[in-house]
Design a protein that fits this description.
- The complex is a heterodimer.
- Chain A has 13 helices and no strands.
- By secondary structure, chain A is mostly helical.
- Chain A has one domain: MetI-like fold (Orthogonal Bundle), CATH 1.10.3720.10.
- The two termini of chain A are 17 Å apart.
- The relative contact order of chain A is 0.14.
- Chain B is α+β, with helices and mostly antiparallel strands.
- Chain B contains eleven helices and 19 strands.
- Chain B starts with a strand and ends in a 7-residue tail after the last strand.
- Chains A and B meet through helix 9 and helix 10 of A and helix 2, strand 6, helix 3 and helix 5 of B.
């Protein structure tokens, strides 16, 4: 029903135009996407399976994987909650500063992640604005896990909200009003009406948010301090290994990230497909 | 449950949506809010439901002030114009929704819930559709699901926003009669919004005609039609000819006070003769014929609607000269109606022609 509609015959170009365009597109994809992917796995396995596995179970590598999972486990739920709250606020209420909030949500997309990291250093670092207070209370943010979590949250901030806002705007609030007139409280309305409506869109946003949280490099690099076994996430660990001429080990860890990316892609396709199937079932339009 | 609205004012940004509404709705009554789009009728309905809160004035149910109460606590059944059914739930679950979200102790047991929902679906004649989803239903069926869902919480007040607006003409007429029958059985105080005069008249006990955030007139259909309070009401209740006329006082002899005579198309009469008027156009409407007559004293053509058989007997045809008269008319001096006593003491002159 909602499958991609092919353009009509009237818009079809002649073969001599189509063929080169198609080849150009395929060549582009092969050169910039497929080739690097094969290269990652090629280099990762160049010293055999044993070396590959050894690189992954290495003490520092395991610490990096653990830290990445920890950071993701904090950042993704935080941004999911924030995203739902922001989308709700923006689509259901009109208040002064609504437009500003909408642009602020996009800020992490517009700002370079390195700058985002630097801002945290300037605020919480040794010479930063809050440095005296932090020192007095023995709280460490920069060059520690809290800084990495903050930077990741900042960078992955827009994904859920951006996905939900257009969706909730299109759906309107009539079903929510109906739920209220039927006596539903805020929680019942959210759980029984809002969540089923936005479910797939939310899943889509969370997947994207998750992928970015795992792979974030720039902002995390600035605030992490690269302390091995303590503040290295997977992308940072890859960089360190590579800089130390441990190419095969670097690619082994990188292949893990690539696998995660592929899994994310597959999941995203699946959810996108479910979402398109779920949308036309609107019984409120004649 | 009775509803009393007093001095309701509601501003939406710079526009006044409601400009001082006073309205008392009796328990068990079926009332229509009738008016052109943008007259504030839907805002008024939503104010009763607690979906909008007025800037001034108060809403009372059975004497109890509910002005500050949220929609959740008013226990009012509301049927939305586009139904607002829960797409992800079956017909059964849609209707059961209001019972399932009740507090732990007031929530019915499973068997009881199934019985209650089953009864409601029988009431709206959808017993065979329990497992369907809203997208698999026709417009009329969705409308009835929305109604059953609103009735499930046993509201004392039922509010309907343009209940037949999104349906095609045949379904609309059927559903309207069915709804009137339902109201006669369950007697819940009901208010519905419409812009369709025929719908309001057929369905409602009383009709409130609204314009620009005010109620222009409220009364039963007969009163509104025969004694419209002002030209707006008269115009809104159907096509009407506005003819210049004058009052001539029989006793004092004071002459020629200008008034306007409002004459419905089916109250226009023609007789053969040279009255200056000429039949311009005849249109076949099926059951009726619509005759347009050009008169030199009028900018607009005069419209008459006659039954087919009456038209056939009259022998009217385009181009014929006729004398125009009115069977009955309503007179307005400016915005004020000319009352019966005043009418009796005066002779009406010069509404083109002879008078009855």
């Amino acid at each position: 029903m909602n499958a991609v509609r092919l353009p009509s015959n009237a818009l079809r170009d002649p073969w001599w135009l189509r063929a080169p365009l198609l080849l150009l597109a395929l060549a582009f994809v092969a050169l910039f996407l497929v080739l690097p992917l094969f290269a990652v796995f090629g280099y990762a396995f160049e010293k055999g399976l044993d070396f590959y596995l050894a690189s992954l179970v290495d003490e520092d590598a395991r610490a990096a994987i653990r830290l990445t999972l920890l950071v993701t486990a904090i950042a993704v739920p935080a941004n999911t909650l924030f995203g739902i709250a922001a989308a709700w606020l923006i689509t259901r209420f009109s208040f002064p500063g609504r437009g500003l909030l909408l642009s602020l949500i996009d800020l992490p997309f517009a700002v370079s992640p390195v700058i985002a990291g630097l801002i945290y250093v300037l605020l919480f670092g040794a010479q930063g604005l809050f440095a005296p207070w932090l020192a007095a209370h023995d709280v460490k943010i920069i060059f520690a896990v809290p800084g990495i979590v903050l930077a990741t949250i900042f960078v992955t901030f827009p994904f859920v909200a951006r996905e939900l806002i257009p969706l909730m705007q299109a759906q309107g609030s009539e079903q929510e009003q109906a739920a209220i007139t039927l006596g539903a409280g805020g929680f019942a309305m959210f759980w029984r009406v809002v969540l089923p409506k936005i479910g797939w869109g939310l899943a889509y946003g969370v997947i994207l948010c998750n992928a970015r949280a795992i792979g974030e490099f720039g902002a995390v690099s600035v605030v992490s301090g690269h302390i091995r076994g303590l503040t290295n996430t997977m992308p940072l660990h890859v960089e360190i290994l590579y800089n130390e001429y441990q190419r095969t080990a670097a690619f082994a860890v990188a292949s893990l990230l690539a696998l995660l990316a592929l899994a994310t892609l597959a999941l995203k396709q699946l959810v996108g497909w479910r979402m398109r199937r779920a949308t036309p079932a609107d019984g409120n339009r004649p | 449950m009775s509803i009393e609205l007093s001095a309701i004012e509601y501003r939406y940004r710079d526009a006044t949506a409601l400009a001082g509404i006073d309205l008392a709705i009796e328990s068990g009554e079926l009332l229509a809010l009738l008016g052109p789009s943008g007259c504030g009728k839907t805002t008024l309905l939503r104010t009763i439901a607690g979906l909008e809160f007025p800037d001034r004035g108060s809403v009372r149910f059975e004497g109890r002030d509910v002005t500050a109460l949220s929609a959740r606590k008013r226990h009012v059944g509301f049927v939305f114009q586009h139904y607002a059914l829960f797409n992800h739930l079956t017909v059964f679950e849609n209707v059961a929704f209001g019972l399932r979200v009740r507090g732990w102790f007031r929530r019915p047991r499973r068997a009881e819930l199934e019985r209650a929902v089953g009864e409601l679906l029988e009431l709206v004649q959808l017993g065979d559709f329990v497992r369907r989803y809203p997208a698999q239903l026709s417009g009329g069926q969705r409308q009835r699901v929305a109604l059953a869902r609103a009735l499930a919480v046993e509201p004392q007040i039922l509010l309907l926003d343009e209940p037949f607006g999104a349906l095609d003409a045949r379904v609309r007429a059927d559903l309207r009669r069915w709804l009137r029958g339902l109201h006669d059985r369950i007697h819940v105080t009901s208010v519905f919004v419409t812009h369709d005069q025929e719908e309001a008249f057929e369905l409602a006990d009383r009709v409130a005609v609204m314009n620009k955030g005010r109620i222009e007139q409220i009364g039963d259909p007969e009163t509104l039609y025969t004694h419209p309070a002002n030209p707006f009401v008269c115009r809104f209740l159907g096509e009407v000819n506005e003819l210049p006329a004058a009052l001539h006082a029989r006793w004092t002899g004071i002459d020629d006070e200008r008034v306007v005579a409002f004459v419905r198309p089916h109250d226009i009469e023609f007789s053969a003769g040279e009255g200056g008027a000429r039949v311009e156009q005849v249109r076949d409407l099926g059951a009726n014929m619509r005759v347009e007559v050009r008169h030199p004293a009028l900018a607009q053509p005069l419209v008459a609607v006659w039954e087919r058989s009456r038209f056939a007997r009259s022998g009217l045809a385009p181009g014929r000269s006729v004398v125009v008269s009115a069977q009955r008319q309503v007179l307005f001096r400016g915005d004020e109606p000319v009352d019966a006593a005043e009418r009796a003491g005066n002779a009406l002159r010069d509404i083109l022609v002879t008078q009855h």
